[in-house]
Amino acid sequence: MPAQDDEEQGQVFFDESDIIHEVDVDEEDLPDADDEDDIENIEDPDDSLHIFTGHTGELYAVACSPTDPVLVATGGGDDKGFLWKIGHADWASELQGHTDSVSTLAFSSDGQLLASGCFDGLVKVWDTFGNFKRTLEGPGGGIEWIRWHPKGHLILAGSGDCTAWMWNVDNGNCLNVFSGHDAIVTCGDFTPDGKTICTGSEDATLRIWNPRSGESIHVVRGHPYHTEGLTCLSISSDSTLAITGSKDGSVHIVNITTGKVVSSCSSQTGSTDGNPESIECVLFAPNFPWAVFGGMDQNLTIWDLQNSSPRFICNHEEGVTCLAWFGASKFLATGCCDGRICIWNCLSGECIETFKGHEHAIQSLAVSSNLEFLVSVSMDSTARVFEIRDFC
User: Fold this and answer.
1) Virtual CA dihedral for 237, 242, 246, 248, nearest 10 degrees?
2) Among 245, 293, 297, 247, which Cα is nearest to 271's?
3) Which parts form a coiled-coil structure per UniProt (predicted)?
4) Which of these, 24, 86, 254, 286, is most buried using a 10 Å CB contact count?
C-alpha cells in the first residue's frame, strides 16, 4: 500500500532509528476518567478570611457598624437576622421575632442602634448586643428598605403598600406617612443635611418630600425620566442631587431643589430579546465629582458629573448587583451575579483585584468603619469577610 494511502488511513510507521529515548510508564501514574472529572471540577479558591454560616437561607442584607469596626449585621430569607463580630467566631446574637424574610438592615449614625426591616411589614430596633428595643408598626406591605436620619434617631422606611413611613425611634411614634406613589416604594433616603426626603417607586417616579409636613415638593416623571420602575437611588453629599437607576436600563440625575433632570445615561447593551438591562445599583463618589452605576448589562460605569459623560466603562463577566466605596478613597467594590467581587481603581478604570469564595450571586456589600474589611452576603447563604486594608 502506498505511503500516502497509509497516512490517509491514519496509520503511521516508525523505524527503530526514529526512537530517541525509551521511558517506562507505570499504569498507576496515568489519570483515569474520574481524575479528569476532578480536574475539571476544581473550585475557585476562597479569598475570604472569615465566613459567617449562621443562616440557612439566601442572604439579602448586610450592614457594618459606623463605630465598631468588627460589628456586622446580616439578614435573609430564613426569617433571621444576626449580629456577629469579625474575628470573634464564638460571638453571635440572633435577632429573633421576625416572621418573614429580613430584607434590610441599618445602623444608626451614632452606632448605638440597629434596625431590621422585614417582609412582614415590621421594623424592629435592637441595641448593639442584640437586645430587642421596640417594634415600629404601620405599613401594610413588606419593608423594602430602611434609612436612619443622619443626625438623630429617626427612621424612614419604604413599603410594598406604596407608602414610606417615618418614626421617632426613641418613643416609637409615627411622625409621618408619605403617600402618593402608585406602586412599591423600592428606594429612598434622607438627604445628608436631613432636610429633605427622596423616594423612588415601581411607578417610575421620584418624589421629593418635606419630612416635617409630609408634602410632596416635586414629582419627577415622564420624558426625559424613567419609563419603568426605579430600582435604586443615591443622594450627593451636598444634598443637591439624586441619582436613580431603573429597570428600563437608564440612569438619571435630578436636581433636588428644582426637581429637574440634569443628566442622563442609558445601559450600554440590551438583553438577547432586545429589552434593556436593568440598572441595579447607583452611588455618588464621596470625594470625587463622579457617580457610579452597575447593572445586568455586566458593566460598571464611572460617570463624570462635570462633563456628563462616562470616564470609564468597566466590564464584568456577569451582571453587577451591588456597589461599595472604600471610604473616601478612589477604590470601589462591585458584587456580581457570578459570586465574585471586583475591586476597581476608579482613577484608572482598572480592576486591581478579584475576590472569590461565594458560590452564587452577591446580594449586598458593606465596608467596616476602619476600612480594613469588606463584608459580602450571597444567595449561597453565607457572609464572607475580605481584607481590604491594602487599598485604603
Assistant:
1) -130
2) 297
3) none
4) 254
Please give the grid coordinates belonging to residue 158: 419604604
Residue reference for cell 449580629: 83
pLDDT digits (tens, 9 = 90+) for 229-251: 999 999 999 999 999 999 999 99
Looking up cell 444608626 gives: 108
pLDDT of residue 42: 57
Contact 134, 116 (CB under 8 A): no
- Spatial contact of 334 and 361, defined as CB atoms under 8 Å apart: no
b/e per residue, 189-222, with b = 16+ CB within 10 A? Answer: bbbeeeebbbbbbbbbbbbbbebeebebebebee
Residue 268 has pLDDT above 70, yes or no: no
C-alpha triplet 24, 26, 29: angle, nearest 5°: 125
Phi, psi of 270 (to 5 degrees): -105, 170
Residue in the structure block whose three cell numbers are 463605630: 67
Would you state the cell numbers that stand for residue 150, as one nine-digit string?
A: 443622619
Task: Please report which confidence band the pLDDT of residue 28 belongs to, taking 50, 70 and 90 as the band edges.
Answer: low
CB 302, CB 315: distance < 8 Å: no
Mean pLDDT value of segment 190-201:
98
Which whole number is the average pLDDT over 28-45? 55
What phi, psi does 194 have (nearest 5°)? 75, 5
DSSP assignment string, 207-266: EEE-TTT--EEEEE-STTS-SS-EEEEEE-TTSSEEEEEETTSEEEEEETTTTEEEEEEE
Residue type, 269: T
Q: Is there a contact between 74 and 82 (Cβ–Cβ < 8 Å)?
A: yes
CB neighbourhood size of 271 (10 A)? 13
Side chain identity, residue 27: E
Cα Rg of the chain (Å, integer): 26
Is residue 59 within 8 Å of residue 103, measured between CB atoms?
no
pTM check: above 0.90? no
CA distances from 314 to 254, 276, 300, 323, 361 (A): 24, 18, 5, 13, 19
Show the cell assigned to 343: 475591586
Among left, alpha and beta (phi > 0; psi -120 to 50; other), residue 371 is left
Cβ 211 vs Cβ 193: under 8 Å: no
State the Cα–Cα distance between residues 379 and 359, nearest whole angstrom.
8
